Amino acid sequence: MSKKKRHERTRAQESSNAIERMYITMRHLFNRGFYKPMGVSGETLRQSLLLLRPEIYGSIGDEKAELEGLLYVIDRLPIGIEECTFINLTSDEGYANSHFKPIIPPKRRRNCYRIDAEQMNIEITRGRSDIYDILTHLTFLFIESHKISNRVIIDENGATTRDWIKLEKAVLSTKKLTQPEREIAITHTANILGRTFNELTNVYSKFATPKQPERLLHIVYWLGKLAIEEQINNNKRTVTFSPVLRERLGHHIHGEIWANTIKETLHKNNLLERPIHIISANMHSVMNTLFAPTALKSKKDIFEVYKSLSQKESESLRNKVTKEALLNGMIYIKDSSGTNIDVQIFDTDKIDASKIDVKTNEAALNSEKPVVFVMDYAFGEQAYETIDELLKPYIVKGKDIHLNVESISIMGKAGILEGGKGDIMIPTAHIFEGTADNYPFKNELKKEDFEGENVNVCEGSMITVLGTSLQNKDILKFFHDSTWHVIGLEMEGAHYQKAIQAASKVRNSINPNVKVRYAYYASDNPLETGSTLASGGLGTSGVKPTYLITRKILEQLFN
Q1: What pTM was computed for the model?
Q2: How far apart are CA 341 and CA 379, in angstroms?
Q3: Which helix (H) or strand (E) holds 170?
Q4: How far is CA 25 from CA 19, 46, 91, 398, 549, in A?
Q5: Which residues of the chain have pLDDT under 50?
């Protein structure tokens, strides 16, 4: 009698299933209109996140608190959110015209408003990816808060440990803490978090702000305080979604306003029917590549100049380059649509081709006079919304004017699976995580383009993930080691390519043979312990790959 083969689920399959459950749950909660993250309604999200144990959230599954993950999350949420019992996700509903001052998180461009002592409103104008991002971070934050309360509550009446009483006294004190007082408070906090004095001292300054030097103590206290309230008095924190947000989401409202403003500007400046090259990148690398040599007249190596421009204290240098660019054909469109995507338009007819610091076919450039259009980074699904709207024809006096788009180049940062920070990835296809969707394409950029540049380059498929904060080693190892041969992960590639293919191959809005270029530089390696996004930014090591990619894109455009 033959034995039946027993199929056991791998960690990668369990993790993949946990991500799928999280997204289905988040959509359900959004449609419902509200939920309590630490109540029954938030249980599926909590269980899935604890099963998944993403690399970015480190020791989320342990009893001890996770410090690097906490810093990563706090940088992406508004200051003061740890004090709020009610978190309301809204659309753009006019708060900009009120007395409320916008709070913008340091690492995420989103407007947030503190309504009162208990409520924080977070404006969602960048699509579903923004909601997924916030809900995942809040779930992490509230799981961590209950770790704190579990360690400090002594009995069911709410009595707390001596460590908690001492921390409370330090946080509520109106006086500035002396060094000995700070160290005493850190000692008590380390006990509460299950961490060493040394670990807390090392991260303490990273949490601090000029207005709140003791911010880490403040965050731990308020997270713990609200978790104690939940456990003792059943006063649960609540996340709500405004009716207007639920009605508007998915209708490309902000993307349409954004795209129409751009096309109107192009039309006004007689640029609409010229050859257009779209680049999705940051707001400095194209401008600096085109204008830094003439604006700064530096004799340093050009990459040293770029490095200088990227330093925080180099504002006067950056202003010189911007001034030069504005005097020589750059049009800057500050976003007012809510997409948080600013735009630069470069009219090459007004740029002296002989002064461009990349290989240029001057005769071709002077005769074709292309327009280089640079848009700031989109966020997740927002990439589809913005490009889809931008590539639609512009209607002038009832007549459709199709944009003469010759190329679309996407440059960004991504996680790498076979290399390290600062390496370059050249994708040959985008695979959309959680679906069978895949987008092979002919990439005009090749690995050979970067030979001799002293930078490591990988070429292969890349996975577009639903959220970088949900990835764990098991899923990533599966994609890297299996026949998918994935070299990296990011959040926008499949969305961009879906919009480009729809416009060029199905809707015939743009040239069916539009050239595409994709290149990413590595911000982290989530397969390496200590090299995840939570371990900190690239610093100046990101300057060389950023500008190498920018220069290669411009070389191809100008030849």
Answers
A1: 0.89
A2: 9
A3: helix 162-172
A4: 10, 11, 21, 44, 39
A5: 1, 5
